[in-house]
Amino acid sequence: MHLCIYCGEKDMPLHRDHITPISICSVSRHYSGNDTVSCCKECNKSLSNAYITTLEERACHLIDLYTIKHRKLLQTADYDPEELEEMGPIMTRTIKASMNEKRIVKDRLAFLAKTASGLYKLDRKLSGIATMEKAVIYKMIDDFVDSGKEKLQAFYDRWAERLGCDSGKVQRIIEEREMFDVSLTYKYNHQTPLDAGQWRTNTMSKTKEQLRAMPVVTVEQVVRFRGEVFAHISEQNVLIGELAEALEAALEWIDSVPDGTELPAMPGFCRDWADSTLAKTKEKQHERS
Predict the structure, then answer these.
(1) Residue 231 confidence (pLDDT)
(2) Pick from 173, 191, 256, 258: CA 20 to 30 A from residue 217's CA?
(3) C-alpha to C-alpha distance for 176 and 208, rounded to whole angstroms
(4) Are 83 and 39 found together in one domain?
């Protein structure tokens, strides 16, 4: 039996609802099973082109719309059989019809509440960040990229507590052994190479030639490793060799950016500090050789 994914309606023809509205993401109309869900005509029409891009949030939006739409109906009183017997036949039929309609609306709202809570089953996996679970994982990946100073296990434990799962699951997601489609979406949105296996070391793994060849619009990726830089500084303010090479290459690349190009903000990144650290690192390397 096919039900409306939102309200559970099953007594009318079903439509296909685009989780991300066509008007937002495409110039052509398509009905791919990975981008749409089955829903009734009323839910589909009510959602229209609202820019709400997760299944749960769309269900919450419908709850608000239907609660307002049926406000008067939901406020009507309920009568027991004994009370109805005291009324005339026409009044009884009217009240029964109203009570039945109210029950249907309340059932639909209850089903919507379950969908909004993530209690639903899909017949296929949705592409993109179409569910709240994926939206939270996307936020976790973004937090991981920005948490350069934090130890890996501490990060896994912190997010495991927030997600209510074991730290091993968080680690598998970060290592792209689970829910890798969310990782791919994040990389695409941030113009990160899709084959990058290590988030924090993605930019550092590039050669000088590759860094110079990167387009100007991805300059954010060049400075994203700053947290890793700080994490590996020793007490003598000296970097490990591989990291020093990456820092030097990045600075050369930044210097090659055309004049007038606006660079992104780099909190905690100081050019004087970088030059001084590189100089001390070279001195240490020279002493060792």
Answers:
(1) 43
(2) 173
(3) 27
(4) yes
Answer yes or no: is 6 within a domain: no
Which spans in 22-88 are helix H?
22-25, 41-47, 55-69, 71-75, 81-85
Tokens for 192? 């990160």
- CA distances 251 to 36, 233, 247, 274, Å, are 45, 17, 6, 9
Same domain, 272 and 262: yes
Looking at residue 100, what is its pLDDT?
A: 94
Of 119, 153, 113, 123, give the one whose Cα is nearest residue 133.
119
248's CB contacts (< 8 A; 6+ apart) are 208, 278
Q: Pick the last residue of a domain from 86, 116, 146.
A: 116
Q: Cα separation of 274 and 196, whole Å?
A: 25
Q: Which two tokens stand for residue 22?
A: 């066509």
Give domain status of residue 126, yes or no.
no
Residue 217 included in any domain: yes
Total number of domains constituting the chain: 3
In a domain, 4, yes or no: no
Q: For residue 53, is pLDDT > 80?
A: yes
Distance between CA atoms of residues 113 and 111, nearest Å: 5
- At residue 227 the predicted structure's pLDDT band, cuts being 50, 70 and 90, is very low
Q: What pLDDT does 265 receive?
A: 52
pLDDT above 70 as % of the chain = 66
Share of the chain above pLDDT 90, in %: 24
